[in-house]
Every structure is written in structure tokens, then in C-alpha cells.
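Page 37, top half.
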Amino acid sequence: MNYDPRRSVRAPLSSSDLSLARRLAPVIRFAANEPFLPSHVGVTVFDAPGTSSSAPLEVTFGPGVARVIEYAIWWDWDIGHLYELEHVWLKLDGKDNIVSIDASAHGRLFAMTRPDGSLPVEDGRVTLYSEPGKHAFHAAPDAIIAKKREMTAACRELAGIDGVLINEMFEQRFSHVTAENHRAVRRHLETHAFEPSFEFSQRFDLSEVHFLSWPDLYEYIAARVPEVIGEVGADSKLIKAVLLDSGDTLVDEGTEVFDGEGYVIEAELIPGAREMVEALAREGYRMALVADGRVRSFETILGRHGIRPHLCAEIISEAVGCDKPDPRMFAAALDALGLSAEDAGQVVMIGNHLTRDIKGANRLGLISIWQSWSSRRSRLPADGEEVPDYTVRTPGEVPEVLAHIERVMARDKKLD
């Protein structure tokens, strides 16, 4: 079902209503080091109870309430995801005096009253407190400070956890968002992780941002999010490809069964190998096989175990005419993926063989990860070229190592 941003609007927003909304707009107190501030406000005026146009919440009227001003407040960023929309509802009597105040916090609506039951008004202005990084509203700072540990984790360890936020309101408009887009946004927000201050000294006058009707803000958001995704993608430094060996990296060589012509006709995967490949695919990593052996063997084994659909290219020594660590194997993989030697520093090679996989990768400037799961090959580097950049014991460790590599890339880029 298509979302209609006008579904609850009773009448077009008049200039007088917009002026009133601006005049009564709340002041927001942010933590002293809050990195993300609002830029737009979408206004809806309700003359009767109804469903919010911009949130799955009911706008209710109580005694003495003649109308309600809804403020849909827009941020480009929440510390956990790309874009933030929080709400304030001012409930007015027939003379436009504020009777009560509601506001949103984590998808729910709460009455904004101080512990003593009074409305949160300071110097004649409605004044609300915003959670660090997350922006949910409170009438007083006490409730935020009481969740200090939770708030700190959200701003540090959980930074970027949700990638691009996509809810029912925008799911069709943002259907183009890819797994790589989500990953780029996560890495971007991880570089903005911070230790939140719980001194709410940053006073932000909401009336000073851009005010418009909710339908107009909806269209702005639909255009703005792809724009921000493009900006982040252009500015981010991500792994451009993951090259995978096969034997004792994906496939357990000890289980290989050969036919009379020397082709592998049966073999089992290393525990966790398929799950690792599927996890990397979900994260939007482009993967290619770079393996020594015969083409038909890999078609049989990797096809049987469901690995091949996740591979963007298969570089096999029989087809290339050389074995690793010959640079032609790795160059063929880069070429098949539309990459060049200049991209080598953002390409990862994962393999079990120090001489073939690690030395070959290091010579071309690829990021090398040695998987030490098997003891069938040498476990000691013969020289400096065989020293891997990273070591994992099992396939299950790979996703977090790749995430770490991208965090280092993002950090180094930020420092440049």
C-alpha cells in the first residue's frame, strides 16, 4: 500500500498557522557535545483528533483543547542511523494558549510534564530535553541521566548499528538502497561515535530552522536521503572486493573425493564457511574466487554447497594458465571485478596458504588475511612477504575483521 503523507491533514496549512507554529516552536536543550542538530520542521495543524500524518500515532484532544500543532522535526542523522524524525505536539485552547504538550521518544508518544506536574516552560518558551545522539524528547533531564549507561552505549558501541533507516513511510521511496549503502552509513557513523555529555547546555531554538508543511517535508526527505547516501558513498573508503581461496579456506581438503580423471566430485565445506559467505553477501561485499585447481571441480563443489551464486567472478588457475602467487591470478580477479591496481589497497585476499595466497596478495598490495584453520600447510612465514596483515582461525571471524579493516580505513581518512 502506498503511503500518503496527506492522509490525516484536515486542511491545507495556512500562512497564519505556519506563523503561529513558528512563534510557539519549542526550544530544545541538547547535550553540550551533541553532533547532530535539526534542520527542518514539517507542520500539521489538527482541528480534531486523528492519526498523525508523519508518525503511526494518534493525535488526541483533551479538555479545553481546540487544536493541536504537530511538529515533525527532521535531522539528517541519528547516531544509530541515517535520518531522524521526532515529534512534538502542542495542544492549544481557543485563544492559542498551550494547554498540554506531548512528544515522541523511540516511536512512542509521551506527555511532557516535569516531575512536579508542571509544563516544561522556561522563560516563556516550551523547552524540551533531547537524548544525546538519539534525540528522543523529555520534559526534564533527569530521565535521560538515569539512562546514562544505555545512552553512552548508543553513542559509542552502537553507533551506526541500523545503517539507513527505512520504515513503512519511505520503504517504496528508498527501495534502491543497497547493502553497501547501509554499510557505508554504518562506517560513517562509527567515525562519529562519541562520549556523550550530560550537561544540556546547548540551547537550540527550533523556530530558527526551515519550516514547511508536512507533505512538503515528506518530499524533501524522499530527495534528501538518497542525496546523503550519495555524499557518504563518495566520501567513504570501503573494501571494494573480497577474494577467497577455496581449499582449506572454504572447502575442507581432507574431505575431497576425486574421480578417475582427477576432478573433485565431492567435498565438505569448512564449518562456518557458507555462513560466512552469506553474511558477507548480506553486507554487500563483492566476492570472487581466486583458487588453484581445475574449473570443473569448483563448479561441482561450490555449486553444490550454494557458494557460487554469491561470487561475482571465479578466477581458476587452469583457466588463467598459472598458479598463485603469480600476479596474473590476482590481476585477473581485479579485472573481472572492474578494478585496477590502484584499488589494491581496498581489496582483501583470504587464504590458507602463506606462500600462494598471502605472498601473492602482499606483492600486489592487497590486504591479506591468513586463515589458519588447517595444519596441512606451513604455519610459519618463510620470509617477510608471507606475513599476513591479519590472521583468523575460522571463517566465522572474517566478517568482524573486515568491519575492523573498514573502520581503520574510515579513521585514517578522517585524519587526513
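Page 37, bottom half:
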Amino acid sequence: MAKKGKDPRLGVTRTTKFEAKTKKGKRFLESRAAQQVEYVKRLLLLYGRKTSQTVKDVLVELKHMRDRMECTHLTRKNEKIVPFEIGGETSLEFLCGKTHSGCFVVGSHSKKRPNNLIFGRVYDEKVYDLLEMGVENFRKAVASEAKQVFSPKPCFAFAGEEFENDADFKQLKSVLLDSFRGRVVESINLKGVDRVIMCTPAPSSGQGEVAKKRVLLRHYAIKLKKSGTRVPRVELLDIGPSMDLCFRRSRAAPVDVEKEAVKKVDEAIKRKKVKNVSDDVMDGTVGRIWLKPQDINAVPLKKPKGKKSRPVDA
């Protein structure tokens, strides 16, 4: 039998499923439910059972590359967070729900998997998918350039047909875009596009089954130079961090969950039904109103000037 507990502030009875008893509790549960369009997808950075100094430096650099107001960095070790093992996701899902984070990066280090990063996403307070990458040839950001203030939304460039054909590369592209997307905006000033994150596939090291697929991740600053014309000359300055990511393990989302997550709701269905208002293909939104019948003879009208009496000329 499920144990029940009640929160008097929200009026929510805690059983196997949450049930709202008040309007405040209903609004709270709706805010925690899955959304069709997430306004801000926060990023959670945390450590696993054991970490190395390289992993700590990588997570710090990822924190600086993302807007600090939309990123949470936890610096304590977490013994129970092992995403790829059964039952190792409970603590991770709890921390993501507590910090309202939709993406996470878990850093760990072991003899079998040195300098390990686990990228993942959360949907409906459950782990959606996982992607494990190894860090090689890591270089920190340039100290002089790191002090400059850059825009919180970076520009991403994915060079190579692997990001369109290979399943692992497609998953990495989707995870990176979700992790650094930030706030959803309709337009952006071109002067705010001042940095770009470049991802390029590298030749696999080894042969046969031992071959590893790698991605070269570089961070550049966009500099606009004078060119003598109205169009400036664009130069890329390597400001770091830079690293090579090699694929290790991955776990895709279940088919039914993925279908539900990417489902789009028609705006006509999503909008509440309004009385006497319809949508027309030609005219757009059309409304119908009701007016009380009017008696034209009783309407007070302005008298014409021609009927006014004029004084007779002397």
C-alpha cells in the first residue's frame, strides 16, 4: 500500500501519482510537467564518483561558455550517480528536478574510462538519452581573451556530412544545441554574434573494431576587420577551450518517449475555443457580433443648414 503524505501549502496528496487538491497545487504540477516549448533549458554540471583535474577544468570551461545565470555547477562528489547502470539515475533525476535543469553533464575518471564526460537530457523528470564521450588533447581558454565579455548565445558550426548521416554524430549535435541554446528568442542582433563553436569530425584512430570516432571541438571569437567596403572582413581567433571528444557509449531515447517529446501541437487546437470566432483560410480570424435592431426614424440626426430660417434682407 502506498504511503500518503500531504503538503498543506500546495494541497497535494503524495501517493503513487500526484493529485492536486487546490488551484495552487494544480498550477505547480502544470509548471513541473512536460512542456511543448521550453523557454529556458538550464544546464547542470556535476561530478561522479571520482574525477581528475582535467575533468574539473573541462566542466569549469563549459560553465564559462554557457550563461552563468542559466547554468548550475555542483562541486561535490556523487557516489550514487552512475547513469548507465540500473538505479544510477535516481539521484541524477532528483538533482535535475531540484535545479530545474533540462540538460546535464556528468564528469568522471577511471582506469577503464579516463577523463569521461556523460552528456544527457531530461524529459518529464526522467532521463531521456545519454551520450558518453572521452576528453583528449584538452587546452584551457586563453587568459587574456577569457576576460572579454561575450554574448551568452554562441553560434554553432558543424562541418561534415557525418552530422547528417551517422547516428552518434546526430545525437551529439542535438545534445550540444540543447545544452547551449538558452533562452528562446525570435531575433538576434548581428553584433551579438561574436563567437562560434566549431565541431569537425576527425579521422578515426585505429582499425577495425578498435577504431574510434572523434570530434574536434574548438571555440573561436569572431572579429570584424576593415575591408575597404561596406562588408567587413571576418576573422576567427582561437580563444579556447579546445578538446577532442571520442565516442564511447550511447543510449538513445525509447521510441514511444521520443515520439511524445517531438510531437507538435497545432496552434488552432492549442488555442482555447472562443465563442463566435472562427479561422478562415482567406480572411484569417473572423468574428461575429450581435447588434440590437435600430429604428432609423428614431435616430437623432443633424438638421441640414438649408432648412434654417434666415433674416430677410433690409
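Margin note: The chain is about 20% helix and 30% strand.
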